[in-house]
Structure formats: C-alpha cells, structure tokens
Design brief:
Strand content: 25-35%
Largest sheet: 5 strands, antiparallel
Structural class: alpha+beta
Order of helices and strands: HEEEEEEHHEHEHHHEEEHEEEEEEEEHE
Number of helices: 9
Helix content: 10-25%
Low-confidence stretches: 1-12, 313-328
Number of strands: 20
Length: 438
C-alpha cells in the first residue's frame, strides 16, 4: 500500500522573535509559523510592560507557613510540612504566575531525596538553609487529531491544541539570583543614609556624581553630603533619574530582552518566596528535628497602585516651597514623642515634627511642609502629655494655628504651666491632614 501525503504539519522554521508581528496583506496564506510569531509578539509586549514598568514579586497571597504533621507513622512523626497559600506573582521575566489553591510539601521527604545536596550545604552547626522558590511553567494539553500522512505512529496522529499556564514550587539550597531586586534595595539604602536636615544642601552636582559612582559593594555616601528638607524632592528625583537611566540597565542583563528570542524557562526566573533555616541531625540520613525559622525579608513583593495611593502621606513640596494640596482623604503627616525643648532631627519623631517656641502655658510646634491651613488644606491635631507621678497631670489643649506652626495650651487647673516644666515635659503628638471638599 502506498502512502499518499495530504497536508502535513511542518516544523517551525525558526524561533519567534518578540519585536516582529505579522503584516497581513490580501492573498497571504497564514501558516503555523505566522500564528506562533503573532502570539509571541503580543505575549512578549505584555511581559515587557510588566517587567520594566511594574517589576516582579509576589502580588497576592503565597503566604508560607511550616507545621508539624502529627498524623504520620511513628517513625516519621517529626515530619515538618511546608504550606504555601494560593496566590499570584510576576516572575523576573514578566510572566504572571497563578497558584490556584494551597500547596504543601514535606521537608524530610525532600531531604531524603536530596541527601547529597543537603550535606554539601550543611553548616558546622547543623544548620541548613533551603530557599522556597516559585517558577512559571507551561503544560501542553487538550490533544486533538491533526492532518498528515496516513502511515503514522499513534504519537503523530494527535497533538496538544492548547498550552495551559502552570507553576513550579521548589526547595533548593542555592540562593536564587535577584540582581535587580538586590540592586534597588542597596541603592535606596544608600540614599536613606544621606541625612535630611535643616541647613544648606550639598551641591547638586556633587550629589549626582556620588550617585552615579554608587555600587552595591561600594562605600557609604560621603560624610559631607546633606539634603535640606525643602530640596529633598529635587534631589530624590535626580537620584531616581540616575537609577533609571544609568544604574538599572546594569542589573537587567536578562535573556528576555526586547529583541532576544523567547525562552520557555530560565534558571534566573525563579522567584524567592522564603528562606527556611532548618535545624537538622546528620548521620547516615539528614532529617529535621525542630520547626524551622522562616525568613521572608528578601522576598520581592508588589503593592497595587490603589494601596500605594492610601499609603502616600503628606503634602509634596513644589518648586516654590509651598506645599501642594494633598488628595482628598485623611493622612498622618507628622507624629512622635517629643520634649518641649528646641529640638530638631529627633529620631523619635516622624515628618520633621519639632518645637518652635516655648512660653508660659503654651508650646508651639511645626513640621516639614507646614503651612497655615486654608479652605482646602486642613489639619487635625491630637496631643497628650506624658504622665508624671510627682505632679498632677497637666491638661493639653489645642490653641491656635500660626504662620510658623500650631500652638498647644498646657494648664494645671486654671494655672498655666511654667516654662521650665514644659521644657522637660514629654508630648505625644499626631498631626493629620485632609483636603476639605469644596
């Protein structure tokens, strides 16, 4: 019997590239390669947007806990189970990963199957760090018959018609690479080490030069580098520009670039969820003896834009030095514990809260970005005086707003409290702002 070929499914000629899409013209016959290329173009643009504009990390759920399973056989009663709740994440290549339901795995089972790797990573103190990671995987599914030559094997008679999104949870002693995440954390820590204090700011050119020379393993900011509160927005904007244009590209040398062919998986696509520090007993076999410590301090995560909107606090300073009106809503702009002295830069305060003036029966406070309230920007002042067992507790009341701060009135009965006492008295203050509706 002869085999007469009909339409055959040809192998794809080349890997799809992400920066080309099909230019369909009338009369063009589209084949498998064309459909694969068109899908690759649109899929990559979504990943590209997520990776470069949003970032990567846990988006929702994926909480990690470890419990002891007491229902196992007696010889395995000390078997600890890792549980990961359902959730979603963006991997370092911009792919959305969905874990639809809770997942679990047993630590001692992993140790039993990976004794060689565990022993190699074991410390002298019998401590073992295992890193729980999440990766994207896809799964061919929905097999369908395909046309082709009649004389074929069973495997050639049908092909998967769909590719389903899937995931992979792994334990590994190897620390997953998080180059961009680690670089961004290191750079922001470097920025936070620059003091923001009253007085003249360092030259912007010197600030720019120091930021451009920053490296993760480099020194702390120069000791003479300072930023005045009213200039902070200008300096931080400059720092962000340098990060985006010059520093970030050095941490983003990934294979999933805007022109490189797409790859189904890459070892650096693993997303860290938690590090488990195990206390184990070693011998012929390594096994867990106590509940492990869970460290999630290096887990990348993303907060939705709506959450950032509510977490934003305080008016931003514009070029004129006047505070810009805040969005409608109620937000804390300054708070802390502070004594009635002329203090500035107190680490127990937030928002630049400070004492401006002390007089008999009154203390004037101010904070960064303060301006006299008007018909739109309003303040709510909450204040308490700390308890003193030697003297009656004075009453603290709001008195008035002035051009350079707000005044609290402090009395004991009908008597105004003396200046010396006020200077040593501790106040607990919270200042909130809201944008009054017209």
């Amino acid at each position: 019997m002869s085999c007469i070929a009909s339409d055959t499914v040809k192998a794809q000629a080349s890997a799809p590239v992400p920066n080309k899409h099909v230019n369909y013209v009338q009369g063009m016959v589209l084949g498998v390669d064309d459909f694969i290329q068109e899908f690759a173009y649109h899929a990559h643009r979504v990943r590209w947007l997520a990776r470069d504009a949003i970032g990567y990390g846990t988006v929702r759920g994926l909480a990690v806990t470890v419990i002891e399973d007491t229902g196992l056989a007696a010889e395995e009663s000390n078997k600890w189970k890792v549980e990961v709740t359902g959730g979603a994440a963006l991997d370092p290549c911009g792919r959305l990963i969905c874990v639809p339901s809770n997942q679990c795995g047993f630590l001692n089972e992993w140790l039993r199957d990976n004794q060689k790797a565990a022993k190699a990573a074991l410390t002298e103190s019998n401590l073992l760090d295992l890193h729980l990671t999440l990766s994207y995987r896809d799964c061919p599914t929905d097999t369908r018959p395909v046309p082709g030559e009649p004389c074929r094997s069973e495997e050639e008679l049908a092909k998967p018609s769909r590719i389903a999104d899937d995931f992979l949870l792994e334990l590994t002693p190897e620390v997953p690479k998080q180059c961009e995440e680690d670089g961004l954390r290191s750079f922001t820590s470097w920025l936070h080490a620059i003091p923001v204090a009253s007085g003249p700011s360092s030259d912007l050119k010197a600030f720019r030069t120091a930021a451009e020379k920053w490296t993760p393993d480099g020194p702390a900011p120069p000791a003479d580098l300072t930023v005045a509160p009213e200039a902070a927005q200008t300096y931080w904007r400059e720092a962000l520009r340098i990060w985006v244009t010059k520093l970030r590209p050095t941490f983003n040398g990934r294979t999933c670039s805007c022109t490189a062919p797409l790859k189904s998986s890459d070892p650096s696509d693993r997303l860290l969820l938690a590090t488990l520090r195990l206390k184990v007993e070693s011998g012929e076999r390594i096994f867990v003896t106590a509940p492990p410590d869970i460290d999630e301090s290096f887990r990348p995560f993303l907060v939705q834009t709506r959450g950032l909107q509510d977490l934003w606090t305080g008016p931003r300073t514009v070029g004129s030095g006047e505070p810009e009106p805040v969005p409608s809503g109620y937000r804390v702009v300054a708070a802390g514990r502070i004594r009635g002295r002329f203090a500035d830069g107190d680490p127990t305060v937030f928002g630049g809260l400070k004492v401006v003036d002390v007089a008999k029966g009154r203390v004037k406070f101010s904070f960064s970005g303060y301006s006299f309230p008007d018909e739109r920007n309003q303040y709510v002042i909450k204040a308490l005086g700390a308890y003193n067992p030697k003297l009656p507790v004075p009453a603290v009341r709001f008195s008035s707003f002035e051009d350079d701060g707000f005044v609290l009135r402090v009395t004991r009965g009908i008597n105004e409290v003396e200046v010396e006492y006020l200077q040593n008295m501790e106040f607990m203050i919270e200042v909130s702002t809201f944008w009054a509706q017209p």
